[in-house]
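CATEGORY: protein folding

GOAL: derive structure tokens
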Amino acid sequence: MSNVLLKDMAQVRSGDKGNTVNIGLFAANEDMYKLFAKQVTADKVKAHFQGLVDGEVIRYEVPTIHAFNFILKDALNGGGSTSIRVDNLGKCFGANLLRMEIEVPEEVGV
């Protein structure tokens, strides 16, 4: 078992609308998708963004394409046009999620 950053095994797409951020997390295959399902939970994503996301984090599963859609509410200090977090708009949140570390069994092979 080793600790691996998501950036070494996943891709993301993200954006924002109002005060909400949307992050799509894509696994390369079904084994990685199952690993993400266990370890990249809404609670862990909320903890990863502690201090930035004031609201709820919701995770939607999209198993047919080995993906998850995370909705982060109250994440932009009132909204992109009113926020002083100019460097923290939606696209930056996706890159930041890739810095999350998870435990990966040797047999998954990263």
User: Anything to note?
Assistant: The radius of gyration is 14 Å.
